[in-house]
């Protein structure tokens, strides 16, 4: 309530954060972590076999990893900070108070990662002979630093979903060493390797021309894939068991699929990835193109699914049992119901609801308590008011709003007075009616 609100309109505030996060995670997991591990593994094999062609391929990979991570990866990382800060300032403010030093450390680790990546790429031709071991060690250090960024950020993300006893102790270590941190970190680690293999496999057909080199690279991929997929499944199961009970019940709901569809798609997809790994382990260069492309696309969709599920199963919270998704503290809801939300909002132009400013007050309330997840119109039909409130009367909306958290447990309770409830209902009804009349 202490910050101005920003409405990205048709696109939707929640959608914008989600898109930025998914793109960043794809780049970070597939390229910065998974890609780096595979790149260094290929260089090790090339040095051991004294294969100049294989080493040239590893160097070519390092060029693209450098370009992608320092451009698209860095930009989407900043994009996450920008979108979350302007859309959910209360949540980011609270997380900064808890994890200030963790984020500072992560920044140092990221800078170290970039320095190591630059060193690794630009010393490739000069560090030969006795210095080759130093180059390989630099590659290993790069992989470790890439992984450390995941370890630290996962601690923050995991605490949002299950902060352990932090709500009682307010201790940094209680929040960071939360029950989901280790399984979530392991799941992301093995998912990154799986994603790296899946994305790089189709590219081998174009970038590795010699059949023997092609087979050697595929064997490296296969060894990693055979280990990463089972470990990803085990750590994913462990992660699921550490979630709060309500969050566990929302996993399938968060995907928008039925239980059957969810089970079949994930089981078939993971099985085909495992089949690809077995074929690669055998050094087969003639596996079906469609299998390579499917595993690449499925792996990207899998990490997208994971991010969507992780974001949605927290609901109605953004920090579990502490702050609701709209930035209202759980402990302050009753206060706002008695004293009003508008009077507590620093940047609200309206402080009290009157007959003259009822619609303006409703708009302020919608921006404060709804736009983190909802918009009046937009592409995501399950979140837009023109679909959710279509055909509802103003009175029906006013009756529903105070009870919405009991009818739909994924929604936070409305924090405001009865007059503010009526103002919000009036605004939503007016906007939905206008859009319905002018589609």
UniProtKB/TrEMBL annotation:
Domain Cytochrome c: 357-432
InterPro entries in UniProt: Cyt_c-like_dom (IPR009056), Cyt_c-like_dom_sf (IPR036909)
Keywords: Heme, Iron, Membrane, Metal-binding, Transmembrane, Transmembrane helix
Pfam families from the UniProt entry: Cytochrome_CBB3
SUPFAM superfamilies: Cytochrome c
GO molecular function: electron transfer activity; heme binding; metal ion binding
Transmembrane region(s): 16-40, 61-82, 102-122, 134-161, 181-200, 221-240, 260-278, 290-309
Protein name: Cytochrome c
Organism encoding this protein: Paenibacillus thalictri
Source species taxonomy: Bacteria, Bacillati, Bacillota, Bacilli, Bacillales
